[in-house]
Amino acid sequence: MIYTGKSLSVSLLDDGFAELVFDAEGSVNKFDRQTVTELDEATQALLAKGDVKGLVVRSAKSAFIVGADITEFTGLFAMDDEEVLQWVANTSQVFDRFEDLPFPTIAAVNGFALGGGCEMALACDMRIADTTASIGLPEVKLGLMPGFGGTVRLPRLIGADNALEWMTTGRDRKGAKALAEGAVDAVVAPETLVEGALSMVKDAVDGKFDWQARRAVKKAPLQLNKNEAMMSFSTAQAMVFAQAGKHYPAPHKMVETVQKASVLDREGALKLENKGFVELAKTDAAKAQIGIFLADQLVKSKGKKQAKAATKQSKLNAVLGAGIMGGGIAYQSAVKGTPVIMKDINQGALDLGLSEAAKILGKGMKRGKVDATKMAQTLNAITPTLEYSTLKDADLVIEAVVENPKVKGIVLKEVEENVADDAIICSNTSTISINQLAESLDKPERFCGMHFFNPVHRMPLVEIIRGEKTSEETINAVVAATLKMGKTPIVVNDCPGFLVNRVLFPYFAGFSKLLIDGADFVAVDKVMEKIFGWPMGPAYLMDVVGIDTGDHAADVMAAGIPERMARLDNDPVTLFYKEERLGQKNGKGFYNYGVDKRGKPSKTPAEEAYALMAPHVAEKTDFEADDIIARLMIPMANEAIRCLEEGIVDSAAEADMALLYGLGFPPFRGGIFRWIETIGLANFVAMADKYAELGPIYQISDGVREMAAAGKSYFA
């Protein structure tokens, strides 16, 4: 044995060859501080050995190296700039010293080789991948750029164009694609990976492969003439701006860094990379995106634990109420392999539900994501029925009828009379109290809310709502079923609107109040989309949700939380509803919807909407962008804080993920609590106090005022 550490070891093989094996104590290999130190120590040990001919680098696990240890980033990035720079420079120099070993090296890549794992492979002279391999540099998804030499080595291996596409999108490559682009030298079956790696490194020693020339290319400036460089980098800049826009600095910084480094050798290029990495590490976008990653890990870990504790597995699901939503839920169950019964009281609704599933599959076939076999299997797994008797064997029944408490209560009672004693019953409701609906049932302990978001096949979140009498066994089983359906479950406690809609409707109320005070809805949408970063502004979002749905939900929220969410006089949403301007569903709302001359969907501000509002709102006023953002976001933030303080949601991280997955909260802002913390709690309190006279939704809780005074964090 040449070297033994906790995360890796180096041993001598036959004929003077050696292997460096990553085998961390946890379930995966990752580059934490300890592993980086051990890599450097192993490199020194190999140098000291003196008679090593060549080295194979491999993993003893099912994945090569999944990347850096992101849990260390928060602490590292809190250090001052010089300290962060010193850390990343020292770490990248460890990779340099490894790359400079006086014999050929080869990475044998299995499973994931991402981020630092990919950079480890790039530091080797050769790379061989097996058919399970996925290789890539996804740092952009954390608001960062590669920091261990990725921006230097990859462009010199596969060309600047390809390398920038890898890095600015963060998409990984399977072995065959990586081979075609020149990032790996061979792809083999998993069982021959180590044997193939050893054979290739022996060929390098025998002079059949010029490893020294390959290494020299990685250490030299990029081989681009002026015209090639200009074309390459201007194209990359245009692509990044089109795809990432101005809110995500990381891809822009990557293009700039690779361009400036293209005329430099390894040492000069790495200094630029180190500097760019530190600049990005200090951005709000990086803090937000790293926060999302850690919050996502928390949500996934919690879901897995709850699913593992489930004592009942759902082998047959049922959906009550077909149509668009019911059809979407049935599709989601079927496409993920759980047969589903779809029941309704009329054949037309069943036909609509089946056509919804077929339409989703048809789009998948057009894009090449679904084949005929998958389409047939999915549709065959949906059983349409008009009879309650077919529900007797269902393990999980999801009621998805009209959003009316009386109708839902009647249907739920009928369901309970027709299912097995241990079947779990859920209601897909967006606002109606689970405790109220549970009153219809004899066994409320087996009942909870299961709130899907529309369109079901696209929206990742399912809000699982625990009622006062819901058992933990029921929650665990529904979490397990949600995960099986390919969705992200977040468990919340019952209250009007639950979590997502409870925080959304104060945002809509702030929007309505802004219109009443004379704002132009087009201007508001533009600010919230272009500056704040929402995928849709509030007027457009209300049209998509449905004006009728919005008006009904506002009634529910007003009844449930009258002290803050009482209906506004002259609310434009109510005015539109009374005039049957329902939004996208009937082509007219704040905007008019149709098709343009090329047959593409069109959206134009509706003159009729302005005319309807005119007698009920103030004269047109041009509000500053900061005012618009504050007047919409303070109510949302305040309600999210109250949900956390009341125990509706367990953590700020889960609330952030719920809004990200359920509403499309801008990822570069990290979620509602991350946004509050980016502003600073004291600054948020001051901002809210500035608008407090606008009404109760702008008035902050004593809890946040105390936290701000004490300098506390929601993520401590």
Radius of gyration: 29 Å
Q: Spans of 5+ residues with little confidence (pLDDT < 50)? A: none
Cα separation of the termini:
43 Å
Number of helices, counting only DSSP H or I runs of 4 residues or more: 31
Count of individual beta strands: 20
**Average pLDDT over all residues:** 95
Largest sheet: 8 strands, mixed
**Full CATH superfamily name of the largest domain:** 2-enoyl-CoA Hydratase, Chain A, domain 1
Label this structure with key terms.
alpha/beta; multifunctional enzyme; N-(1-d-carboxylethyl)-l-norvaline Dehydrogenase, domain 2; globular; 20 strands; seven-stranded mixed β-sheet; eight-stranded mixed β-sheet; 2-enoyl-CoA Hydratase, Chain A, domain 1; 31 helices; 716 residues; Rossmann fold
List the helices and strands and how they pair.
Elements: E1 3-4, E2 8-12, E3 17-22, H1 33-49, E4 54-59, H2 73-77, H3 81-99, E5 105-109, E6 112-114, H4 116-123, E7 126-130, E8 134-136, H5 150-158, H6 160-169, E9 173-174, H7 175-181, E10 186-188, H8 193-205, H9 211-219, H10 226-244, H11 249-261, H12 266-281, H13 284-308, E11 317-320, H14 323-335, E12 340-343, H15 347-366, H16 372-380, E13 382-385, E14 396-399, H17 405-418, E15 424-427, H18 434-438, E16 447-452, E17 461-466, H19 472-484, E18 488-493, H20 500-516, H21 521-532, H22 538-545, H23 547-560, H24 562-565, H25 572-578, E19 591-595, E20 601-605, H26 607-613, H27 625-645, H28 652-663, H29 672-679, H30 681-690, H31 702-710
Parallel strand pairs: 3-4, 4-5, 5-7, 6-8, 7-10, 11-12, 11-14, 12-13, 14-15, 15-16, 17-18
Antiparallel strand pairs: 1-2, 2-3, 8-9, 16-17, 19-20
Keywords: Fatty acid metabolism, Isomerase, Lipid degradation, Lipid metabolism, Lyase, Multifunctional enzyme, NAD, Oxidoreductase
Catalytic activity: a (3S)-3-hydroxyacyl-CoA + NAD(+) = a 3-oxoacyl-CoA + NADH + H(+)
Enzyme class: lyase
